[in-house]
Amino acid sequence: MIGRYYHGPPRIVILALFCLMLTGCTRAVSLQSIQEYAKTVSTASASFDAIAADFENTCLEYREFAISAPSDLRTLPVTQPTPSATNPSPYDLVAHLPDCGQAADVSQQWKLRNSIITGYVRALAAIAGVDTKPSGFDTLASRLSDVGAIKQAQAKPFADLATSIASLLIRGRQDALLRKYVHEANAPLSAAAGSLAVFAETDYVNVLVNDRTQIDRDYQTSLRHRVSQKPIDMMKIRDERAQWVLRRGSVNQRIAAAGAYADTVRRIAQTNASLVQETDKPESAWDLFTTAKESLSPIIDNLIVLNKTFH
Amino acid sequence: MADTLSPSQITSLAKEYTQFGATINDFLNNNDVADDDLYKGLSKAAEKCASIGMNLSIADAKTQFADSAEAFRQLLAITTDANKEADSLKNEVAQISRALKIAAGMLGLVTALGSGNPSNVTKALGDLHDAIWGS
Q1: pTM recorded for the entire structure
Q2: Extents of the domains making up chain B
Q3: Number of A:B CB contacts under 8 A?
């Protein structure tokens, strides 16, 4: 009976199938762009780890320079006036060295927080990356044809239609999940990324600027000392200057990297906010491709800065 | 007993001390201070500001992280859930594919039985076994 009356899918089904495949193709690109976005964010992980570790490293570097300062220059004031109640006791830099164990805790916490943010984007990509097309309809169609349930010519259209319908149903769940998580994560992601950006722009930059101050003071004081000695050791002065230029340059690069990092984490949150707006539209109007793509270029630029600084 | 600084005061002081130290440092970098005592005094003032700025910035970082802990906890919970759902979605597709393979295997067996060829039957049984239990 099937062979007599069934000459392939009815026209309305063919039309529906065409529309389905058309949207399917567009959506495939869209979901792929979310994966691309996540891939880019994932490549940030190494740079994010390195910048987090630098908080502790900067503290250690600062300590090294503070300790290396000549002992007679460590205390204030240099010329002690008559002691009185208004004259504070000398400030001993070594006694007030920062606790780099605390800085190490901050580095660990920063690394953990970075991994939570990149982990979220990866989870989103894991959902977008699920291949919604079940395999096996083609074999089943071929077997149905073998037992005479359908004609051989009908096997491929049957398999394609069945695969598309099954894929559509699964994709519906995939869409719902993406919509659910970008919405749920939006507020905490915005708060989390915002706090990391502010932390990088304030505390991390402060630590770097203070390190640079100590590096400069160490070099300038040493230079002053060497210039006052006879004969002047020009080789030593040249060596110390070269070291100073390198160290100062490194700190300045890391200050710029802090800005790039802050911009990156903010953009990750902004992209999620854009995806929320996009998924609030009817599904046919979703343009996740453009939404995710617009975020990629500036993030990649920032990652180049971070990579150059820390690798 | 000394008063405890509020978190916002720590943030503000960390910035102020850092910037003040950097300002004195810039002055010394850009000007030739001939007087030794003045140079040493200013240099040490810059170092003192940097030292206080360093300690306050580390303290402020810990406070900022504590303040944002809840947002990260929520995001982590959402991520864990999203990863489970991604796995579940993947499993659903795999289960459908497996069901199709079993159905195809059964039809294959029917065809093989109809052929009357024992080797076809043996192969079809093997395919069905693989579809059910996995090869």
Answers
A1: 0.79
A2: 1-67, 70-135
A3: 234
